[in-house]
Structures are given as C-alpha cells and as structure tokens.
C-alpha cells in the first residue's frame, strides 16, 4: 500500500505486443512502446481514474480547447538501464514539479506529483523490455496534459487528460556529439518575460519553427535566441539552455522569467560547482560573446537539455560571419560533462548528487 494512499492505477495489458525497433534505427521519438498512462480531469471529480492501457489513438471532439487555444503542457525525462539490471530515472521529481509550474501558468489544474511519479514508474516497469541499452540510447518519457473540453469560448477548459507515453530513443541529433552550428536570431523572438517562456508548453515550440527553418536554409543547425525586448541578451539555443566557456570560467544566462529552467542546466551547474570550475549565472550579451571570440577567449559553447543531454556548438553565425569555436569536435569540458552526466544516468559512475532513482 502506498504511504499516501494514492488512487490505484488500473492496468490493462496489450494482447498484441509490437516488434521492437532495431537500436540503430531509433532516432528520436519515432517509436512508441506497448502501453500508455491516462488520467482524466473534470471540475466535479478532479483528477480521477488513473490507468495504464495499450498504446492507442485517442478521440477528441474537434472543438476540444487544446486545438484552438493551446492549453497544453509537457515534460521530457529519461529512463536508463544499468549493467546490473536496474532501471534508473534521472531526477523525475524535478519534472513533476515543473509540470505543475507549467500547469499553473496555463491555468490548468495541477497534479498530485506522487501520482505522476507512480504512474511513470509503473508504466516504465511494464514496458521495461523496450528500454534500449546501446551507448547513447535511452527510454524517453513524455508526460503531457491537454485541455479536452468541447467549447469555443476563451476560458480555461473544465476537462483535461494527463497522459504519459514512452519512446525508445537514440541521440537527439543525428551527428551525436558532433558540434552543431548556430544562427544568432535577431528577427524572431521565442518568448518574453511575463509570457509563457518558462512553461513547457506547445506554443513556445511552435513559435520557434519559423526561425529554425530559416536558419536551416542558411546552413545552420539551430537558433541562438536573444531576449525579446532589447535583442541583445543571450537566452537559449534551439530548445536547450546554453553555456559558454570564456577564459577560465563558464557563463550561463541567469533565469530571467522568459526561458525554461532546465533540469540538465541545473545538473550541469551543480556539477561544475562540485568540480570547482568558476561559474557565473548572469545576463550575458551577444556582444560580449563576439568580443570573447575575437580575443580568442571563447573556447567552448554547449547546449544542455534532456533530449540531447549535452550538445557542443562548433560555429556561431552572426551578421553573415561564421565564427568557428573549438577544433571541430566536442570541447574538453563539454565531453567531460557529457561523460559524467551519462555515466551517472546509466549507473556506471557514482551519483554523489543523489539524482537517480532506481525503480
Ligand atoms: C529537452 O531536451 O529538454 C527538450 O525540451 C527537447 C524536446 C522538446 C524534444
């Protein structure tokens, strides 16, 4: 019996398990496991009927609010197998907390974080055979909430679904740890302080697509976002937080209310402090980055996120100039952070931070 008397999760197992995809074909988010978690909400009953069912399509009324007003939030975290047969989740409580912060911002009902954790643990256990164990692979866990009330008035939905789906994944970028090029975006903005930039909600990602397409046309892999007001402070890279190694220190933009407080960002900050690498969390302008480049002090740039873990940046495209950072492979610090983080996540290295939870 759970200490907190969580509602029991009903379980219906699939009668037709699917074939597992080969590890070298995984890519990111192309395959889904045999089961999914669902729980419903309405204003009379609150969250109710948690259940694990065979993975299947869902039916919604065309007027469901999620389709029209974008009331939806999501999370992303990963499960890893260990050599001794355990399954490790990486800081899942942080994701459950952030899911609720996103829910609050979008005027959506918060969830009992214990039921979120219990739902995802049980689901991962049921589909544990789907967890790949080749280097660079993992089971990506995607919890999300959608507004399902059929009504076109602009007001918070009175009905929702919370779901969790699982996807065996390889590296997020096809090139793995090969450094990417980034285009410093000065025309479009992703989010502004006071908006929904700190929530993990669909609109932020939809807003980024146009810039991403244009950057790709110019031969760049990702966009480096500047702040939406003065267009001079660096915020994020693609859908990741960003770190710069300048001289003997590492600098990352301080959380300012317009971009996401990444779980990997927080983990990297803790790790660098543990290693006594000088680290500054502060506002940082693109001019400062360019100046550091010109003076030869900008030695590494890397993005951090759940999907890619660490993504080294090898080129900065700014005002038609292509500035090479590093020597074409992952920088020494980026590689050390990646190896340590994935070592902890997969149980190969000791976890001095108590980040992983075995299920
Ligand atoms: C992450 O890496 O944390 C992300 O948010 C990427 C995801 C949208 C695919």
From TrEMBL:
<dbReference type="InterPro" id="IPR018300">
    <property type="entry name" value="Aminotrans_IV_CS"/>
</dbReference>
<dbReference type="Pfam" id="PF01063">
    <property type="entry name" value="Aminotran_4"/>
</dbReference>
<dbReference type="GO" id="GO:0004084">
    <property type="term" value="F:branched-chain-amino-acid transaminase activity"/>
</dbReference>
<dbReference type="InterPro" id="IPR033939">
    <property type="entry name" value="BCAT_family"/>
</dbReference>
<comment type="similarity">
    <text>Belongs to the class-IV pyridoxal-phosphate-dependent aminotransferase family.</text>
</comment>
<keyword id="KW-0028">Amino-acid biosynthesis</keyword>
<protein>
    <recommendedName>
        <fullName>Branched-chain-amino-acid aminotransferase</fullName>
        <ecNumber>2.6.1.42</ecNumber>
    </recommendedName>
</protein>
<dbReference type="InterPro" id="IPR043132">
    <property type="entry name" value="BCAT-like_C"/>
</dbReference>
<dbReference type="InterPro" id="IPR005786">
    <property type="entry name" value="B_amino_transII"/>
</dbReference>
<dbReference type="InterPro" id="IPR036038">
    <property type="entry name" value="Aminotransferase-like"/>
</dbReference>
<dbReference type="InterPro" id="IPR001544">
    <property type="entry name" value="Aminotrans_IV"/>
</dbReference>
<keyword id="KW-0100">Branched-chain amino acid biosynthesis</keyword>
<keyword id="KW-0032">Aminotransferase</keyword>
<keyword id="KW-0808">Transferase</keyword>
<dbReference type="InterPro" id="IPR043131">
    <property type="entry name" value="BCAT-like_N"/>
</dbReference>
<keyword id="KW-0663">Pyridoxal phosphate</keyword>
<comment type="pathway">
    <text>Amino-acid biosynthesis; L-valine biosynthesis; L-valine from pyruvate: step 4/4.</text>
</comment>
<comment type="pathway">
    <text>Amino-acid biosynthesis; L-isoleucine biosynthesis; L-isoleucine from 2-oxobutanoate: step 4/4.</text>
</comment>
């Amino acid at each position: 019996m759970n200490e907190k008397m969580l509602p029991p999760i009903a379980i219906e197992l699939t009668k037709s398990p699917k074939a597992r995809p080969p590890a070298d074909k995984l890519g990111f988010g192309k395959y889904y496991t045999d089961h999914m978690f669902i729980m419903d909400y309405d204003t009379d009953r609150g969250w109710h009927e948690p259940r694990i069912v065979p993975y299947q399509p869902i039916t919604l009324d065309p007027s469901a609010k999620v389709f029209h007003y974008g009331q939806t939030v999501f999370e992303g975290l990963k499960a890893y197998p260990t050599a001794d047969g355990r399954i490790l989740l990486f800081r899942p409580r942080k994701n459950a907390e952030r899911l609720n912060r996103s829910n609050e911002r979008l005027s959506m009902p918060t969830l009992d974080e214990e039921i979120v954790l219990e739902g995802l643990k049980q689901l991962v256990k049921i589909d544990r055979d789907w967890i790949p164990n080749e280097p660079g692979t993992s089971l990506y866990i995607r919890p999300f909430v959608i507004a399902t009330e059929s009504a076109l008035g602009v007001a918070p939905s009175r009905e929702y679904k919370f779901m969790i789906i699982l996807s065996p994944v390889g590296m997020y970028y096809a090139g793995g740890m090969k450094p990417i090029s980034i285009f410093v975006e000065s025309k479009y903005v992703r989010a502004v302080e006071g908006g929904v930039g700190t929530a993990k909600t669909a609109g932020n990602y939809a807003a980024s697509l146009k810039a991403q397409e244009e950057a790709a046309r110019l031969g760049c892999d990702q966009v480096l976002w500047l702040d939406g007001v003065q267009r001079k402070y660096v915020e994020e890279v693609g859908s990741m937080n960003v770190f710069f190694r300048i001289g003997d220190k590492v600098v990352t933009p301080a959380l300012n209310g317009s971009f996401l407080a990444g779980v990997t960002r927080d983990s990297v900050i803790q790790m660098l402090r543990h290693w006594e690498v000088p680290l500054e969390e502060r506002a940082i302008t693109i001019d400062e980055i360019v100046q550091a480049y010109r003076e030869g002090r900008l030695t590494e740039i890397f993005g951090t996120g759940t999907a890619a873990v660490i993504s080294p940046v090898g080129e900065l495209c700014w005002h038609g100039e292509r500035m090479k950072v590093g020597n074409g492979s992952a920088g020494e610090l980026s590689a050390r952070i990646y190896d340590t983080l994935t070592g902890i996540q997969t149980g190969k290295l000791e976890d001095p931070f108590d980040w992983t939870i075995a299920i």
